[in-house]
């Protein structure tokens, strides 16, 4: 299909284009046979070799991914690269009984103590109670429910938070869960038992 | 005029020169040069600072011939859209011939400022060895050099005051460039290596800072740990401008405690940046600095969430310049509006560059800022959506904009409420802001917006257009209307030959025109080049399979034209055709 035909068919029914980035609803696209709108740039096959091709196009570059155009938004490539290097380790945090999960960036903390404070800030009904040295408990003061922080490691095992050095923990933690203390026994049983130790206890 | 000229010529040249000394802006000096021959001569011999907006508009020999005694040179190379990967690597912009020529002709260079140029280690070494009085090097968005080149600068420039590296792509050889500053170097006033990726020797850095008692500006890279920052600040509490390195520490540790104590003493810090790696729990340590800050750049701190940002900003009542990420949100911008009454410049950058769909800012944030900050004159705003009503309100609130750059993340998004193009909104901006010099438009836009721009934007010097307009009329409105236009850059817009060729003389009044993914054809570019010998019309061809030149009727993907005194450049790569 020649370039112009393709353009016209794009516009004759603007709702047809799957990439409706420009015009939600019924707003009319200005009709012009040669207007190249944003959606055209992305959808258009610019690499035809037909005789009436009037385009000295960039044959060597791969077509941009749907919805992405070279150089947009116009942010300096230096900035883009810099932001990509930022160390970031977001993990999901689940609390037994809560209807939704949260996410935490483990890289910004430097100790278990900070992590517990983060839980406290994130789930405002909870407070830290340092009962025994290595096992800090988190308590919902409204109903006295105790929670233990646990995490799923790289091997898929659920572990109690606090046993390994902090950096090792950050490295291996895939996600976090605040388990109700009473559930702890169940968890240990299911881990101790044979097959997969990936969490099925939720 | 005759009488005036007689009177002025009565004064000896030294007096004229002394009077001209008060003129520092190159535009004023250019204007003065046009008055008469004697003023031209006095001015040219006394000009100390030369500004070249396009390195290919002249050559070094011409500059040296006209200004034999200059000491400071500013050069800009690649077109602006090179920042967004629209210009191929190896396009050009080499500083080497300039340094060679200056060295050969005995120019006593003291200051060199380069933007978007290719700088090699060889160039840096030549620079460091050729000019004994060299004092100041500023490189912005440059590439082509490594830390070896920096080592040469550090080793050889005995009186170096300023080494300012902003957003350059530097090959970090993990050498010891910083350790190359000799023990005798005590002259540093400004050191910015934030863009480097590698480590520097902490002890060498501390010693350097300790002996440079005049150091006012220091921007570290993110490899410098917090402990080192603390030690440095003990030695240099007189800093005005600080860019932190890594700002990650355990807030319960002793080193953090020491940091807090030393930051309380840094009462001269007016400008703050950095925080690429940050533990938000450590931010309270900078609260004491916030009260004096006039400039804050957190655009490289994606680790600081909205509520922590707000806690910082609420303490920065004297802020005049704020660069931030859109993680601040509309609510955060309302806090800025309520707090920063001295704000002049705001830049809100997008944090989510991979389309994951994180919340950005909207027109509400912009309206809040315009209402709360009466001194606002410069804005760069990346936003999720915009409305005409908001822009009209902003125009009413802030008639003093000099720079207005709006960037909708979807480049053709219409008014979020009415679904109409954003023509009227931008029209209100240009009508209200009579001093507007720079404008970037985005969103769904028809030819109408360009009618407004041509009609009202009388002071406009730079215009950036993307995915806008319907026909050649749009571009014509701008070319005919904006008398002071210097730089026009257009991408992905339906402007073609008729617009390009309607007023060919216009381009000699401008620095440059960039058009990519538009409708101009190869034939039209040739015609333009034939008619205007004092323009370089460059066509960038990225089609490797093409044999020979395109046919006249073929569209040109990228065209860059600029006025020049020296004809086609000799360093153009094979894929750049100067017609």
UniProtKB/TrEMBL annotation, chain A:
Protein's cellular compartments: Nucleus
Keywords, sorted A to Z: Auxin signaling pathway, Nucleus, Repressor, Transcription, Transcription regulation
Pfam families noted in UniProt: AUX_IAA (PF02309)
Gene3D superfamilies per the UniProt record, alphabetical: Phosphatidylinositol 3-kinase Catalytic Subunit, Chain A, domain 1
Endpoints of the signal sequence: none
GO cellular component, one term: nucleus
Residue span(s) of domain PB1: 88-190
Coarse class of the protein's main subcellular location: nucleus
Domain of life the protein comes from: Eukaryota
Subunit composition and interactions: Homodimers and heterodimers.
Physiological role: Aux/IAA proteins are short-lived transcriptional factors that function as repressors of early auxin response genes at low auxin concentrations.
Family: Belongs to the Aux/IAA family.
Name used for this protein in its record: Auxin-responsive protein
Organism: Penstemon smallii
Lineage: Eukaryota, Viridiplantae, Streptophyta, Embryophyta, Tracheophyta
UniProtKB/TrEMBL annotation, chain B:
CDD domains in UniProt: F-box_AtTIR1-like
Domain F-box: 11-50
GO MF annotation list: auxin binding
UniProt keyword terms in alphabetical order: Auxin signaling pathway, Developmental protein, Nucleus, Ubl conjugation pathway
Keyword DNA-binding recorded: no
Pathway as given in its UniProt record: Protein modification; protein ubiquitination
Protein origin, superkingdom: Eukaryota
Chief location: nucleus
An example Gene Ontology biological process: auxin-activated signaling pathway
GO cellular component: nucleus
InterPro entries: COI1_F-box, F-box_dom, Leu-rich_rpt, Leu-rich_rpt_Cys-con_subtyp, LRR_dom_sf, Transp_inhibit
Record localization: Nucleus
Pfam family membership, one: Transp_inhibit
PANTHER family xref list: F-BOX/TPR REPEAT PROTEIN POF3 (PTHR16134), PROTEIN AUXIN SIGNALING F-BOX 3 (PTHR16134:SF45)
Record-given protein name: F-box domain-containing protein
Source organism per UniProt: Penstemon smallii
């Amino acid at each position: 299909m020649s370039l112009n035909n393709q353009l016209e068919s794009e516009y004759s029914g603007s709702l047809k284009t799957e990439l409706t980035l420009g015009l939600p609803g019924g707003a009319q696209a200005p009709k012009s046979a040669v207007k190249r709108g944003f959606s055209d740039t992305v959808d258009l096959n610019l690499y035809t070799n037909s005789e009436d091709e009037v385009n000295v196009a960039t044959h060597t570059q791969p077509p941009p991914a749907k919805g992405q155009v070279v150089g947009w938004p116009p942010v300096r490539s230096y900035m883009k690269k810099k932001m990509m290097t930022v160390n970031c380790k977001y993990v999901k945090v689940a609390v037994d009984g809560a209807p939704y999960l949260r996410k935490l960036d483990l890289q910004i903390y430097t100790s278990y103590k900070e992590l517990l404070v983060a839980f406290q800030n994130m789930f405002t009904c909870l407070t830290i109670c340092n009962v025994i040295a290595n096992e800090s408990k988190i308590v919902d003061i409204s109903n006295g429910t105790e929670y233990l922080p646990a995490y799923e490691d790289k091997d898929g095992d659920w572990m109690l938070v606090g046993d390994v050095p902090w950096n090792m923990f950050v490295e291996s933690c895939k996600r976090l869960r605040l388990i109700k203390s009473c559930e702890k026994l169940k968890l240990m049983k299911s881990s101790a038992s044979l097959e997969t130790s990936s969490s099925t206890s939720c | 005029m005759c009488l005036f000229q007689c009177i002025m010529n009565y004064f000896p040249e030294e007096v004229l020169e002394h009077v001209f000394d008060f003129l520092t802006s190159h535009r004023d000096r250019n204007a003065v040069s046009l008055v008469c021959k004697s003023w031209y001569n006095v001015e040219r011999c006394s000009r100390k600072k030369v500004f070249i907006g396009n390195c290919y508009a002249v050559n070094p020999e011409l500059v040296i011939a006209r200004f034999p005694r200059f000491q400071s040179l500013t050069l800009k190379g690649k077109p602006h859209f090179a920042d967004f990967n629209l210009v191929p690597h190896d396009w050009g912009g080499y500083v080497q011939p300039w340094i060679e020529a200056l060295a050969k002709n005995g120019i006593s260079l003291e200051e060199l400022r380069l933007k978007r140029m290719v700088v090699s280690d060889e160039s840096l070494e030549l620079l460091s060895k050729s000019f004994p009085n060299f004092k100041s090097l500023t490189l912005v968005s440059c590439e082509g050099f490594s830390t070896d080149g920096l080592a040469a600068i550090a080793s050889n420039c005995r009186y170096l005051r300023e080494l300012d590296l902003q957003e350059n792509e530097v090959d970090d050889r993990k050498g010891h460039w910083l350790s190359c500053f000799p023990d005798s170097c005590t002259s540093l006033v400004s050191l910015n290596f934030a863009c480097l990726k590698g480590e520097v020797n902490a002890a060498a850095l501390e010693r350097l800072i300790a002996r440079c008692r005049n150091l006012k500006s220091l921007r570290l890279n993110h490899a410098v740990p917090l402990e080192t920052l603390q030690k440095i600040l003990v030695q240099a509490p007189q800093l005005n401008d600080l860019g932190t390195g890594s700002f990650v520490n355990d807030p319960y540790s002793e080193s953090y405690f020491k940091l807090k104590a030393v930051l309380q003493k840094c009462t001269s810090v007016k400008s703050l940046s950095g925080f690429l790696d940050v533990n938000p729990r450590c931010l309270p340590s900078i609260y004491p600095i916030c009260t004096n800050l006039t400039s804050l750049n957190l655009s490289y701190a994606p680790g600081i969430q909205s509520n922590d940002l707000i806690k910082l900003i609420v303490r920065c009542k004297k802020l005049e310049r704020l660069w931030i990420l859109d993680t601040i949100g509309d609510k955060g911008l309302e806090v800025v509006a309520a707090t920063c009454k001295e704000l002049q410049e705001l830049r809100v950058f997008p944090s989510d560059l991979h389309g994951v769909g994180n919340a950005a800012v909207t027109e509400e944030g912009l309206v809040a800022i315009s209402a709360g900050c009466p001194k606002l004159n410069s804005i760069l705003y990346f936003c999720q959506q915009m409305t005409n009503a908001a822009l009209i309100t902003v125009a009413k609130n802030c008639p003093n904009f000099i720079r207005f750059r709006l960037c909708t993340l979807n480049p053709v998004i219409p008014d979020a409420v009415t679904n109409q193009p954003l023509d009227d909104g931008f029209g209100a901006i240009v009508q209200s802001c009579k001093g507007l010099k720079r404008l970037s438009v985005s969103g769904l836009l028809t030819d109408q917006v360009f009618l407004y721009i041509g009609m009202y934007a009388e002071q406009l010097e730079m215009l950036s257009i993307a995915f806008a307009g319907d026909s050649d009329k749009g571009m014509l409105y701008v070319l005919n209307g904006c008398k002071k236009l210097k730089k026009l850059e257009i991408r992905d817009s339906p402007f073609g030959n008729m617009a390009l060729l309607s007023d060919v003389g216009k381009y000699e009044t401008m620095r440059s025109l960039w058009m990519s993914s538009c409708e101009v054809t190869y034939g039209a570019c040739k015609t333009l080049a034939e008619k205007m010998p004092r323009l370089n019309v460059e066509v960038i061809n990225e089609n490797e399979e093409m044999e020979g030149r395109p046919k006249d009727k073929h569209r040109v993907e990228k065209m860059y034209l600029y006025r020049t005194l020296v004809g086609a450049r000799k360093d153009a790569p094979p894929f750049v055709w100067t017609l």
